[in-house]
Amino acid sequence: MNVEDEVFDITIIGGGPVGLFTAFYAGLRQARVKVIESLPQLGGQLSALYPEKYIYDVAGFPKITGQKLIDNLTEQMNQFNPVVALDEGVEKLEKQLDGIFKITTNSAEHFSKTIIITAGNGAFNPRKLGLETADKFEGKNLHYFVSDMQKFAGKKVQLFGGGDSAVDWALMLEPIADEVTLIHRRDKFRAHEHSVELLKNSKVKVMTPYVPLEFIGEDHIEHVILEHVKGEGTKSTEVDDVIVNYGFISSLGSIKDWGLEIEKNSIVVNSKMETNIAGIYAAGDICTYGGKVKLIATGFGEAPTAVSNAKVYIDPSSKVQAPHSTSVMGESEDKIVSVSL
Amino acid sequence: MTKYTIVDQDTCIACGACSGVAPEIYDHTDDGISYVTIDQNEGMVEVPAELHDDLEDAYEGCPSDSIKISDEPFHGNALKFSEAM
To answer: Is the pLDDT reported for residue A31 higher than 60?
Structure first.
């Protein structure tokens, strides 16, 4: 059987903190797990919006940065080798006659006995340029996300944006690319002072206050026309690649059309984390019930509830209450110490 | 140019991006939801011209499009100038 046709026990929609913990817990309960994430990276809101900010209300961590929490959760999840499908936005959901769910994304089809939706505030997508001439270059040399820096080796790169990640990307690309120009519509950058200082001392060319007006080229962008925000005319610049970093925007998108009971952009669940569709569960910020508190901490609690009940849905003879992980994982510090001596 | 702003608190996801870039316009309540400080989120008081750049940063940086800007007052209704939902 092809991996593409494999029917998974639990498919998790949304690779944010709650999705990752759900995947771990489903692995612990010996379920075959797949995670579908709309961005090319895991981490959801934490990685997209505040990777460097400290979070103070995760049990067991006096404080931890968003990205470190995601790195830890990923490591924890990977103990069970789940399949992770990145850069796939969910579109259609269908319950087949055999009770198996078919999830269609923008690039693939996935099959699963149950679904746990941990999509937070919806799928994050990069905020696009509002330029008519931009769309046709997407996927060519107009990029909204950088996943492989080496692609820009020796290239003339123009980067648009004024936030932390725009500045960070410019600094990371500087030693790789032939030339990096950072363009922002105002003179002030809204990035960490330290990063702005590094920027000043780098070879990155900074052009402010400019905005892109037009992209010129047949198949690829060859020239970018930049417009001075305060009316000092336009400039034509030659480029190999254009990267836009205008942040992210979230939306619930097609999940709204799946027949789930939705209240104020959240999916209504009961105390088992069941939605109104048998076999579909929700956890984390996307779900709602009487007394719901939207925090990572509460989402972490909802995850095992959703998984355990999904497990019983798949196999009615299994138990909702799982044995403690101390028994299941079967390893202790003592053992490790005695082996290493 | 006159500008008014309001936060749509039904869609705000409490990420703190707006108060980070425009602390003189936005702050957040105890549960993290943002509001406009200059008029308690009524959208009735003009945003001072010197804060217009910050205003635009907050508008562009909001991941849920909850920051609304208009050249007319909102009278407490964040969706006053939005298309019908």
So the answer is: yes
What are B2-22's pLDDT values in tens digits? 999 999 998 898 888 899 889
**Residue B82 DSSP class:** S
CB B6 within 8 A of CB B43: yes
User: Minimal CA–CA distance to A117: which of A261, A283, A4?
Assistant: A283
* 8-state DSSP, A190: B
Cα-based torsion angle of the residue sequence A213, A167, A126, A267 in order, rounded to the nearest 10 degrees: -140
At B32 the pLDDT is 82
H or E segment to which residue A173 belongs: helix A164-173
* Distance (Å) from the alpha carbon of A122 to chain B's nearest alpha carbon: 9
Neighbours of A255 (CB within 10 A): 22
Partner A contacted by B45 (CB < 8 A):
no
d(CA A91, CA A171): 36
The Cα–Cα gap between A309 and A182 comes to 50
pLDDT at A338 over 60: no
The residue of chain B with its CA nearest to that of A163 is B61
Closest CA to A293 of B53, B32, B63: B32
Q: Are B57 and B25 in contact (CB under 8 A)?
A: no
Answer whether B17 touches A (CB < 8 Å): yes
Which chain B positions have a beta carbon within 8 Å of A248's beta carbon? 63
Peptide bond into A209 cis (omega under 30): yes
| Cα A196 from Cα A202, distance rounded (Å) | 10
Burial profile A45-82: b = 16 or more Cβ within 10 angstroms, e = fewer: bbbbbbbeeebeebeeeeebbbebbbbebbebbeebeb
A112-128 burial, b if ≥16 CB within 10 A, otherwise e?
bbbbbbbbbbbbbbbbe
Q: What is the pLDDT of residues A173-217, one digit of tens each?
A: 999 999 999 999 988 888 888 899 999 999 999 999 999 999 999
Which token pair is A192?
Answer: 């960490």
Helices (H) and strands (E) in chain A, counts: 8, 22
Is the confidence metric ipTM above 0.90 for this complex? Answer: no
**For A16-30, how does the pLDDT look when each residue is reduced to its tens digit (9 = 90+)?**
999 999 999 999 999
Q: Which stretches does DSSP call E strand in A32-117?
A: 33-36, 54-55, 64-65, 83-85, 90-95, 101-105, 109-117
Q: Does B48 contact A at CB distance below 8 Å?
A: no
